[in-house]
Design goal:
Layout: H1 8-17, E1 21-27, E2 31-36, E3 39-47, H2 55-69, H3 74-82, E4 86-94, H4 105-127, H5 139-147, E5 149-150, E6 158-165, H6 184-204, H7 208-217, H8 225-232, E7 242-248, E8 264-267, H9 272-284, E9 289-300, E10 303-304, E11 310-319, E12 325-332, H10 334-345, E13 350-357, E14 364-375
Parallel strand pairs: 12-14
Antiparallel strand pairs: 1-2, 2-3, 4-6, 4-7, 5-6, 7-8, 9-11, 9-13, 10-11, 11-12, 13-14
């Protein structure tokens, strides 16, 4: 097993994650010397310089000692040392029908898409908690996905490991309430872990009705329909597989005290039907939204009256605050319709609409419109 590609600092940090501490005088002749309070007669020695002539031999010896003391396989110890700066989630697939010969290719493809959607939906929940995200590919979420990597699977089981350097992205500047000692990657992984944990707990307590009701009324729900949809992708009806979800956390960023470092969240096969019920409930519930919207006029479907004035239905594309675009239909009188025509002719013009946006499929319906105003294009004066 080659441990020489593990850097000295990563090997040191891996040892520290297991409880080893550098002795007060523990840097001697370019060597880290570490001790553990539970093993008073043992020491681990790690060269400080990766280009030292005996670094490969010394790092392997240190790794073997750590693996032996902590009852790890050497392969697992090396893997954990290599990813000590990364947060990762691992999805282990088990089933009475699964074997070492492989998984159906169609399910393997869905499995990867589900893992990707878990990251995207969790990142979007960090940015704007809600029970259904209309669009998952927000810029920050997509950027985080670009840093993520698919790790190697483990022998004897099917394991998908998705990892991301914990310091790849800081929290967006628009989130001043978040402490300094965190990152967007860490917050996303924590939301994914918490969301799955809460769903599993609700199923096991037979409390899905109250769980869904609480999510609908929560100001910052941690579970979205998108997360439930991602979890559904991790299950195959023919294999009837279970999922064991675990996380590994970069040691350079402390975990909250209430988050165990070695937790495994098990999702039995029979839970996935219930998870899909939660998905349908969360996606179907949307409330009317009274607001002032800005958008563009996309279609003019009105009709002329006997006086030659046009009025009726208009389709607009609303630019929502969260960076999404949503189509809606509304009915305008002749004066406002004339403004809509002008905005439609000039594709640089926007309109400002005050009204109530109804839930449902696009195009949504805008009712109780109290104001429809043209925002002139730059250089034309006006508002």
């Amino acid at each position: 097993m080659n441990a020489s590609d593990v850097t000295p600092t990563d090997l040191r940090d891996f040892a520290r994650s297991l409880g080893w501490q550098i002795l007060p005088d523990g840097i001697v002749e370019r060597l880290y010397v570490l001790a553990h309070p539970a093993f008073p007669r043992r020491q681990v020695v790690i060269p400080i310089d990766a280009d030292a002539p005996d670094y490969a031999e010394a790092s392997l010896r240190a790794m073997e000692k750590l693996a032996d003391i902590h009852k790890l396989s050497l392969a697992d110890a090396v893997s954990r040392a290599r990813t000590v700066r990364e947060d990762s989630m691992q999805l282990r697939i088990t089933s009475a029908r699964a074997n070492d010969d492989g998984l159906p290719l169609s399910f393997a493809s869905e499995l990867l898409r589900g893992a990707e959607q878990m990251l995207l939906s969790s990142a979007c929940t960090v940015l704007r908690p809600q029970i259904h995200h209309l669009r998952l590919h927000r810029s920050e979420a997509t950027q985080l996905l670009g840093y993520a990597q698919l790790g190697q699977t483990q022998r004897g089981s099917f394991v998908v490991r998705v990892s991301c350097p914990v310091d790849a992205m800081p929290m967006p500047a628009s989130f001043p309430h978040v402490g300094e000692n965190t990152s967007f990657v860490r917050e996303t992984m924590l939301v994914a872990r918490t969301g799955v944990r809460e769903i599993v707990r609700a199923i096991e307590a037979d409390a899905l009705d109250s769980f869904v009701g609480a999510l609908k009324n929560a100001p910052a729900p941690v579970v979205s329909s998108n997360l439930c949809e991602a979890l559904s992708r991790l299950h195959d009806e023919d294999i009837r597989n279970n999922i064991d979800l675990s996380f590994r956390w970069a040691v350079r960023l402390p975990l909250p005290n209430n988050v165990p470092s070695d937790e495994v969240l098990r999702i039995p096969s029979v839970y996935f039907d219930r998870i899909d019920e939660v998905r349908r409930e969360l996606r179907s519930v949307e409330r009317d939204r009274d607001d002032v919207f800005v958008g563009t006029v996309e279609q003019l479907n009105g009709e002329f009256d006997v006086e030659g004035r046009r009025a009726g239905e208009v389709i607009v594309a609303l630019l929502l605050r969260e960076g999404e675009t949503l189509k809606a239909r509304l009915t305008l009188g002749s004066d406002d319709y004339a403004s809509a025509v002008e905005a439609h002719v000039n594709d640089r013009a926007f309109v400002r609409i005050a009204g109530r946006l109804r839930p449902g499929r696009q195009p949504r319906t805008l009712i109780d419109v109290t104001s429809f105003m043209l925002i002139p294009a730059p250089g034309r004066g006006g508002l």
